[in-house]
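Hi V.,

You were right to ask for the full record rather than a summary. Here it is.
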Amino acid sequence: MNKCLIIGIGNTLRGDDGIASLVLKHLHDTIVSDRIVEVTQLTIELAPTLAECKCVLFIDAALDLPPGQWKIGEVPTGVEVATPFGHELTPAELVQLTCALFRHCPAASLLRIGASEFDKPDSISDILSVNVAAYADCVSHWYQEHFHEDENPVVAL
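Predicted structure:
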């Protein structure tokens, strides 16, 4: 249970919503790939995977931040889950369900990236494209902070 996991959320067919996918591609050479998961939405099927982790970082596009800006913070705990069997959960709901089902709550963080253009399939806005390396650095720093020597090695940057 020493594993740290990075989960990118978004749909590459919806423009900036696919920013997490681009960040993850940037990270594949620096972080062991079995520590990276890419999904279009969070579902309860991810709960067993989270239950095996000591920490998780979610990456997602955000409408409440100015385009291009990013913010990393802890996922709130103790949230009420609207419906555990829905087709989409928030990171807080997924962590809460993991806690309830497996009696283990991984430390969870969320990197939100301000996005604004969702109507261009397979295309990220210019302001997000120029910052992909910065977003990836943020994720790498988070991973290094949570990495311990008893885990699989991470390839140096």
